[in-house]
From TrEMBL, chain A:
Domain of life: Bacteria
Protein name listed in UniProt: ABC transporter ATP-binding protein
PANTHER family the record matches: ALIPHATIC SULFONATES IMPORT ATP-BINDING PROTEIN SSUB (PTHR42788:SF13), TAURINE IMPORT ATP-BINDING PROTEIN-RELATED (PTHR42788)
Transmembrane feature ranges: none
Nucleotide-binding among keywords: yes
Keywords noted in UniProt: ATP-binding, Nucleotide-binding, Transport
InterPro entries, A to Z: AAA+_ATPase (IPR003593), ABC_transporter-like_ATP-bd (IPR003439), ABC_transporter-like_CS (IPR017871), ABC_transporter_ATP-bind (IPR050166), P-loop_NTPase (IPR027417)
GO MF annotation list: ATP binding; ATP hydrolysis activity
Residues in the signal sequence: none
TrEMBL record, chain B:
Protein name from the UniProt record: Taurine ABC transporter permease
Keywords: Cell membrane, Membrane, Transmembrane, Transmembrane helix, Transport
Cellular location(s): Cell membrane
Classification via CDD domains: TM_PBP2
Similarity-based family: Belongs to the binding-protein-dependent transport system permease family.
Any single Gene Ontology cellular-component annotation: plasma membrane
Ranges annotated as spanning the membrane: 32-50, 91-110, 122-144, 150-169, 190-208, 247-268
Length: 289, 281
């Protein structure tokens, strides 16, 4: 099995490293988080002592067995969940709740079914006063739809669209305000394999253009390698960081000439991740006994 | 069911979807109406035939023709209309009061644990208590007449509305509320833009139940509450006078009234939440 160092030297394309003077955009410091059960007076620890930095412009993927706390981690950054210990910071200040600098793409799309595609995307701009001027909104919607390839579907309702198209609307809604941070919780988990690959390629293109910082949860190892600059492997019960892996593959990765998926390096990273996660699955089974 | 024939050559729209015009047989459009009319016609003819055979005592089972005559004469000589209008007005006012109280309280109970905890026992007690049990108390407090009849309608309709609205709020998908929070909606905006539209079909279902229960309440009030008004009074009087045709005519009126109200709500429902209907289909 190919071995990959936990902290690999920076890749050729992105000259970011731990010594970089720029402070981290997102920073988790010894974060522990859990869910209270008031009836039984217990607290389930979902994540324990997680420390992690996400650099500006980085694409970070999080993988791990289901129930290991991936969603909890992204919800900490989004501001839905508060840590019981430690702190989560964005641009150096403690996360107090959701903010205009962070947008989320949900696994179940979370579109408002009574709104058209256009009005769903507008939803991201209409709540915060003065956030995006009214006069600019129509242009923004058009641009976001173009970015995700849904021009012409402005007046459609979500139930008239396929799963892949709905998630494109979800992505357009998250992109339309041009937030600095994009949080994606298994965004392609519910779309079919073909659509999934097309959407991964699109996402890579979009992010190359917008230069957003992305935290991306997936349970697909290949997806993580294809999209991410770094992959965080979380282990289960309680969720802790098992390993952080640099993905030093050249971009764009969905270029047909590059054929990244058949490169030896891709294979190495892949088999390393597989072995890590196979351990996890075994460990979880034993723990369950 | 619609019968379709070959579509016209496809027209491609800007979004790349192919739209064709379809032709629906002219008969199909009127079929529903035709079947209903035929169905009712057969029903009344059978009624007439069975009644003429006098298998059942005509005192309990009048001829359909006599029933229609009673209906016609009742409208002509002004015995029916004042009572019908009294019942209808009372009912609609009662329903409106129930909606104005029931919807916000129900939404509040769905959204706030504390409100739910405080109000739940009373709401559930009142929802399950048979309405008739309240009549003596209401007569004691308000005497016979309109106020008492209106009160019983409201007490009948308001709780199903409340309970449905509460249940509706609890079904709102958590991820939609999170989406609201992520995209900057404050609490009032989340209520207005997420929770309320999502709950609308439940509100309508609640009002539908409110209509059914409210009609029962209306009749109880008119039958037992005296006051000499309304369709209930008409029923009571016809019964006392062994006027079977009038009795049946009033029942038909009641049936038409409730079916009409339920149909109106259906129409409203389709307009309020087309997304739900299509999602279900
Ligand atoms: N709202 C909640 N209430 C109670 N427990 C929760 C809640 N959300 C998640 N959990 C629990 O916390 C753990 C981590 O969940 P989650 O972060 O959703 O994992 P993942 O996204 O990796 O599948 C799981 O054991 C899950 O059952
Ligand atoms: Mg999850």
């Amino acid at each position: 099995m190919g071995h990959v160092e936990a902290h690999h030297a920076p890749g050729a394309l992105r000259a970011v490293s731990d010594e970089s003077p720029e402070p981290a955009l997102i920073e988790a410091l010894h974060v522990t988080a859990g869910y209270e059960n008031r009836r039984e007076l217990t607290r389930l620890i979902a994540l324990r002592d997680v420390s992690l930095q996400v650099r500006r412009g980085e694409f970070l993927a999080i993988v791990g067995p289901s129930g290991c706390g991936k969603t909890t981690f992204i919800n900490l950054i989004a501001g839905f969940v508060k840590p019981t210990e430690g702190s989560v910071r964005v641009r150096g200040s403690e996360v107090a709740g959701p903010g205009a600098d962070r947008a989320m793409v949900f696994q179940d799309y979370a579109l408002l079914p009574w709104r058209t595609v256009e009005r769903n995307i507008r939803f991201a701009m209409e709540n915060r006063r003065g956030h995006v001027p009214k006069s600019a909104q129509a242009g923004r919607v058009a641009r976001a739809l173009e970015l995700v390839g849904l021009t012409g579907f402005e007046k459609s309702y979500p139930h008239e669209l396929s799963g892949g198209m709905r998630q494109r609307v979800g992505i357009a809604r998250a992109l339309v305000t041009e937030p600095e941070i994009l949080l994606m919780d298994e965004p392609f988990g519910a779309v079919d394999a073909m659509t999934r690959e097309a959407m991964q390629a699109e996402l890579e293109k979009i992010i190359a253009e917008t230069r957003q910082t992305v935290v991306f949860i997936t349970h697909s190892i290949d997806e993580a390698i294809l999209l991410a600059d770094r992959i965080v492997v979380i282990s289960k019960r309680p969720g802790t960081i098992r390993e952080v892996i640099d993905v030093d593959l050249p971009r764009p990765r969905f270029d047909e000439q590059a054929d990244v998926q058949r490169s030896p390096r891709f294979g190495e990273i892949r088999s390393h991740l597989w072995s890590l996660l196979a351990d996890e699955a075994l460990g979880a089974k034993q723990a369950a006994r | 069911m619609t019968e379709t024939t070959q579509g016209t050559p496809g027209i491609e729209r800007a979004d790349g979807r192919q739209i064709e015009t379809i032709h629906v047989s002219r008969f199909a459009r009127f079929r529903t109406i035709a079947i209903t009319v035929l169905n009712l016609g057969v029903f009344f003819v059978l009624w007439e035939v069975v009644a003429r055979a006098e298998v059942i005592n005509p005192l309990f089972f009048p001829k359909a023709g006599d029933m229609f005559a009673a209906l016609f004469n009742g409208f002509a000589d002004g015995t029916i209309w004042p009572q019908l209008s009294h019942s209808l007005t009372n009912f609609l006012i009662g329903l409106a009061i129930s909606a104005v109280i029931g919807i916000p309280v129900g939404l509040l109970m769905g959204a706030s644990k504390v409100a739910d905890l405080i109000l739940s026992p009373y709401v559930w007690a009142m929802t399950s208590l048979p309405r008739v049990a309240l009549i003596p108390l209401l007569i004691l407090i308000m005497g016979f007449g309109n106020a008492m009849q209106l009160t019983i309608i409201v007490l009948s309709a308001v709780f199903p509305i409340m309970v449905n609205c509460m249940a509706g709020v609890k079904t709102v998908e958590p991820s939609l509320i999170r989406a609201g929070e992520v995209f900057g909606a404050n609490r009032p905006q989340i209520y207005l833009k997420v929770i309320l539209p999502y709950t609308l079909p439940f509100v309508i279902a609640g009002v539908n139940q409110g209509i059914a229960r409210g009609l029962v309440g209306m009749l109880i009030g008119e039958l037992l509450g005296g006051g000499g008004n309304g369709l209930g009074y008409l029923l009571d009087k016809a019964g006392e006078q062994f006027d079977a045709p009038m009795l049946y005519a009033t029942l038909i009126l009641l049936a038409v009234m409730s079916v009409g109200l339920v149909q109106a709500m259906r129409w409203l429902e389709q307009r309020a939440a087309p997304w739900r209907d299509i999602a279900r289909a």
